[in-house]
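Batch manifest, entry 17 of 40.
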Amino acid sequence: MTRYSLDISDTEKRQIESCRSDLSWKELSFGAKLRVLIFEQVEMLEEENTKMIDLNRAANMAEMYAKACPGGINGSLNGAVIDIVDTAKMARYRMAEMFGMDPQDVPLESCIKVAIEALLKAQQDPAS
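Output type: structure tokens
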């Protein structure tokens, strides 16, 4: 195991020592507390990264769906509204599937935003 030196102020050390109140935390050495906090942070960042990758996949799928919508992207206003609604519904179910959630728990505002962005992007680049 490689050792690293770290400069920590007395205030930061007190914050780390007192950030939890359970007995097992009090029994850990200061170095072990740092390792626990670092590993927890790394795990949280990995989860966020996975969610962003999944969200990007959902947006890409929404864009592909938008390009394939009947009536096309350059259709009338009614067609555009239908495209947005259809794309938002698809995005909602896809995000729910990716995150293991009930579709009703996926914020509709997020789905509409993804749908509009996908439709606008598809409109700007219809060939891709």
